[in-house]
Structures are given as C-alpha cells and as structure tokens.
Write a structure and sequence with these properties.
Helices cover 32% and strands 21% of the residues. The protein has 393 residues and is an alpha/beta fold.
Length: 393
C-alpha cells in the first residue's frame, strides 16, 4: 500500500546576520548545512498493516509521517501509495489523495470548538462536498463505531480528553479512507484512557483492516500496537522488524537499551518460545511401540494425535503399560487425559499459570487443534528472564 525509498528531508536555514555582508566589506563564514531531519529512510507498509514509527523527540518520526501525504515536502527520495507516485502528483491529485485515500489523526484532536461532535466527525466529508444528509449519516455511523453514538449533538468542550480523541478517530473513519496516519494520537491522554484507546484501535483494526501508520515515542505502545515497528534515531531508521524480533535481537546498543525495560510478558507470545515436542504418538500406533519410545526419554506421558495432527489427549506412561499387558493393539484403546492448549498468539503473561504441574509441556495448537509446538516450563522462564538482557552479549 505504501512504498517509501530513500526519503530525505533537509530544512533550509534562514539567513542569519553572520552569513551576510559586513559593513566593512568582509563576509563571515557561512553557517554549516542543516543536518537532515529524515535521512535516507526506506520502508514498505502492506495493505491492512498497522505499522509503527517509534523514536524520541527529534528523531524525525513526525516529519517522516507528514511526508507521506506531503504536508512536508521531501527533499529527495521516492514515495508511492497504491502504486501511484505521490511526489509526481499535482495539486488537484494531491488534494484528492488527502480527501479520499489518506486521512490523519493528530495528537491534540484538532476539533472545531464551535461545532457539535457530529459536525466535527462529518467535517472530512464536508470538504468533499458530500450532501449534508449523507455526511451526517456516515458521521453518526462512525461515532457509533467508536462508542459515542449518543454524544453527537454536544460540543467538544463537554467531552473528556479520551472522548475528544474518539471524535478525531471517528472523523477519520467517516471518510472511509484506506490509510490512516496517526501522529502520537494518545500521548496527551491519561494512562488508563490511553490504554482504552489502544485497545479500541486494535479492535477497529481487526474489524476494518485499515492501513495504519502510527507514530509514537512510547516503546510499550509501539510494541503493543504494531505488526512491525521502525525505530528512528537522528533521522535514520536504525531497526525495522516484528516486535519480538526487536525485543530478542536488537540491531545495536541503542535499540537494546531502548527495549531493556519493556514488559516482554505482554508482547512476546507463545509462538516465539515454543519448541518441537520431544515425542508424539498417532492414534493408530501400537501401545508397545509407544512405550518403548517413551522409555528413551525423560517423559512420563505423550501427546496422542489423530490422522490430521490434531491433539486427542495425553496418554500417561502407566496407562500405556497397562494397555500393553492387556494386549491392546492401538493407542485408540488407551484412556487419555484431556490436554490443555493455547493459541500461538497467546502472550506470555497468560501462560505463567498454565505451564508446569502436568506430565507434558503446554501444547500450542492452531485453529484446527493441530499440535504446532510445546512450551516447557524452562522455555517460559528463559523467555521472561533473559530476552533483552542477553541479546547484546
């Protein structure tokens, strides 16, 4: 959806007295050239992706975001949205891009204080010359989506900060733009309200599948929201990758220091710490054969799978031995314990009380209950205790 190649922005310095002709005819040395605010940054954003640009103040993240719809003109580089070159667009084409394809949500809401909530939500449609009846219909639908359906007729001054930011989000949604650019939209909110807005954004993204470029200076927010995260420093992109990749394999000391205090238990998921099961059995296997294989391990039970790889349950060593003594010829005849399992995207914090105290590791299964990995207690403890601290060694 978005392709940026070598984007660069250098702000020209204003002439200063030191660089002008002195009265006695000698010219002072010229000021050094400005450092790039954005320096040779390249990235792509897929259709429906929530892509986060993260960095401290002065890193160039907001400048880069505004270059995507040419609120800031790039000094150099190439930019395509939906396959079209944005830098080659004339004024009419650029206005159309901003009105219909790309919308922006700002940090300080940007609401018009003399207009009602529904009028604010409808403003993006008004500049498109959509009829009043239609734009109010779409605006009220968007307010319903963000939980403000009954607040349309009040003024912004009557709303809390979190509610005003919901209006700003509704205004962007009402235009049905394909791409949302969000410039630190939650940074002015109280922590609890901020968390609520983050969860709302994730719910909307799961339902609407917008392409979102989200700027933040908060690493926990970046890791919580982003499919992928690009970390910037001094105008450059120092690392771009998935959240777990950045946590477990920081590109340099700067990134490693950044992620040192991140709450990994809420970001790293089961898929990142699971390993191959040491032993499994198929429902058609002979108990005697399974018993022999079990003896060569330190396990006291085994996962039993059906013909598709789905987990049927867990066969304990004692039950397998009894089946052998009784002459049973199939694992289908062995009593099975139920098997607790989790989805691969389950965060570590939800696994802590579920790992351990069982004859087999915790199972990780897909939507068809097929076994795709296991989580021993040692793997969970290692993930919680060493990721990030040892990544720089």
């Amino acid at each position: 959806m978005i392709e940026a190649v070598g984007l660069r922005k250098i702000y020209e310095k204003n002439p200063s007295p030191s660089s002008t002709q002195r009265p006695w005819g000698r010219r002072a040395p010229a000021d050094p050239p400005s450092a790039p605010a954005v320096d040779d940054v390249s990235f792509e954003v897929a259709d429906g992706e929530l892509f986060v640009i993260m960095g401290l103040s002065g890193s160039g993240k907001s400048t880069l975001l505004r270059m995507l719809n040419r609120l800031v003109e790039p000094t150099a580089g190439a930019l395509r949205i939906g396959g079209r070159s944005v830098l080659d667009m004339n004024d009419v084409e650029l206005r159309e891009l901003r009105n219909r394809t790309v919308n922006m949500v700002f940090q300080h809401f940007g609401l018009l204080p003399h207009r009602t909530v529904v009028e604010n939500a409808a403003y993006g449609l008004q500049v498109r010359d959509v009829t009043e009846k239609e734009r109010f219909r779409q605006a009220r639908e968007a307010l319903e989506v963000v939980g403000l359906g009954s607040w349309g007729d009040v003024l912004p001054s009557e709303l809390s900060g979190g509610m005003r930011q919901r209006v700003g989000l509704a205004r962007a949604l009402a235009t049905d733009a394909d791409i949302l650019l969000m410039d630190e939209p939650f940074s002015a909110l109280d922590p609890l309200i901020r968390r609520d807005m983050q969860e709302l954004l994730l719910e909307l993204q799961a339902e609407l599948h917008k392409t979102i470029v989200f700027v933040t200076h908060d690493l926990n927010e970046a890791m919580h929201l982003g499919h992928r995260v690009m970390i910037m420093r001094d105008g450059k992109a120092v690392q771009l990758g998935g959240t777990s990749e950045i946590l477990t394999a920081p590109a340099d000391d700067y990134v490693a220091d950044f992620v040192a205090d991140v709450d990994r238990s809420r970001i790293v998921s089961a898929r990142h710490v699971m390993c191959e099961p040491q032993l499994t059995a198929c429902v058609g296997d002979k108990p005697e054969d399974v018993g022999h294989r079990l003896e060569s391990t330190d396990l006291h039970a085994v996962f039993v799978l059906d013909g598709t790889g789905a987990v049927l349950g867990v066969a304990r060593e004692l039950e397998i031995s009894r089946a052998v003594r009784e002459g049973r010829t199939s694992m289908a005849d062995v009593p099975l314990d139920t098997c607790e399992h989790v989805a691969p995207d389950t965060p570590l914090i939800e696994l802590c009380t579920r790992v351990g105290g069982r004859p087999v590791p915790l199972a990780v299964t897909d939507d068809q209950k097929q076994l795709i990995g296991v989580i021993p207690r040692s793997a969970l403890l290692n993930a919680l205790g060493t990721h990030g601290r040892n990544a720089r060694v």
